[in-house]
Design brief:
The protein is of the alpha+beta class and 336 residues long. It is 25% helix and 27% strand. The longest helix has 19 residues.
């Protein structure tokens, strides 16, 4: 019996690209995934794992077995001297989970409010925003290997978190499918409001509550980023590039307004949106796609775009930024 079936993937990617999968299966439980892997169902070809579809660029035809992760569940699972431990299923909507933790009196994820996608996808990208990265609130995760069904717990060190990176984006990690994530939320909470936009939004509030920080982040994101239900987009399309201190010094001398953020290892992170805007791409279109008029870092689908259209625009932006600044931008979304 073939459990997989053809499916329209267009509603499952926030860029709104027309896409069709020849083979898709919704995964509702860990046992279901383990049974499939034990049956060696994935040995004959590639597999694509989808969460909320917010970080993919899908072709018109996906020639792979697609797994749509729909494992739910939210629960407190323990505590340490410094943290509350909270677990969520991979299929939980990320923002809904964040708000649930706040409702439970478990702050710590509020700066990551309104990031699209699912809990299971969050560690893969090591999502981050407004002064906080997931890695700083991570405890562990469980994953199932597609070749044989082994279930394993990964610690933070084993996840090899980096800037928008983890082991699950590399060859030795791509066959692991995340089924649940456990977070370590601080028992002695302090607001993370050092990011300029957050500080501005909270101006006049000396000691904001976790919910107020979350509301501030939501307001900022809604102002800067388009609603995917209204105009297709995958949020920030390019990573902020990291350069050496020497290269930054040369760029800062040539471009005095360049925003830059020194890193602990001596490198310097640059603002990709600023580079794109200076290269003349803010609000500019190339066919049915363009860079958003309010935020140059966001690539939007004005209607009817394909993955080829997205690739063409991304290549053009990368080329112009490289020519003007000598910096190579790297896309955040995954091209299937």
């Amino acid at each position: 019996m073939n459990l997989f079936a053809p499916a329209d993937l267009t509603p499952l990617n926030t860029l709104g690209l027309r896409s069709h999968a020849q083979s898709l299966l919704r995964i509702d439980s860990v046992a279901q995934l383990e049974a499939l892997a034990l049956g060696r169902a994935f040995m004959d070809g590639p597999v694509v794992v989808l969460g909320g579809g917010s970080n993919i660029v899908a072709p018109q035809e996906v020639h792979a077995r697609v797994l749509q992760m729909a494992i739910h569940g939210r629960e407190r699972v323990g505590q340490t001297a410094d943290h509350w431990l909270v677990r969520a299923g991979a299929g939980e909507v990320w923002h809904d989970f964040v708000r649930w933790t706040l409702e439970q009196g478990l702050p710590g994820l509020e700066n990551l409010s309104l990031i699209p996608g699912t809990v299971g996808a969050a560690p893969i990208q090591n999502i981050g925003a407004y002064g906080l990265e997931l890695a700083s609130r991570f405890h562990s995760l469980e994953a199932v290997h597609l070749d044989g069904g082994e279930t394993r717990t990964f610690t933070a060190a084993e996840c090899r978190f980096g800037y928008r990176d983890s082991v699950f984006k590399h060859a030795d990690g791509v066959r692991w499918v995340i089924v649940s994530v456990t977070f370590a939320l601080p028992r002695r909470w302090q607001a993370v409001k050092g990011y300029a936009d957050v500080a501005r939004e909270l101006e006049g509030i000396a000691e904001p509550t976790p919910l107020q920080v979350s509301d501030a982040v939501v307001a900022i994101r809604q102002h800067k980023l388009p609603d995917p239900s209204r105009i297709g987009n995958a949020g920030s399309f390019f990573k902020n590039p990291v350069v050496s201190a020497t290269q930054h010094a040369a760029l800062a001398s040539a471009h005095p307004g360049l925003p830059a953020y020194p890193q602990a290892d001596g490198t310097v992170k640059l603002a990709a949106g600023w580079l794109i805007e200076q290269a003349g791409w803010k609000g500019r279109r190339l066919g049915p796609v363009g860079m958003y008029e309010r935020q140059a870092l966001v690539l939007v689908n004005h209607g009817g775009a394909t993955s080829q259209d997205v690739r063409a625009l991304a290549d053009a932006v990368q080329a112009d930024v490289a020519q003007r600044f000598g910096v190579r931008l790297e896309p955040e979304p995954v091209f299937l």
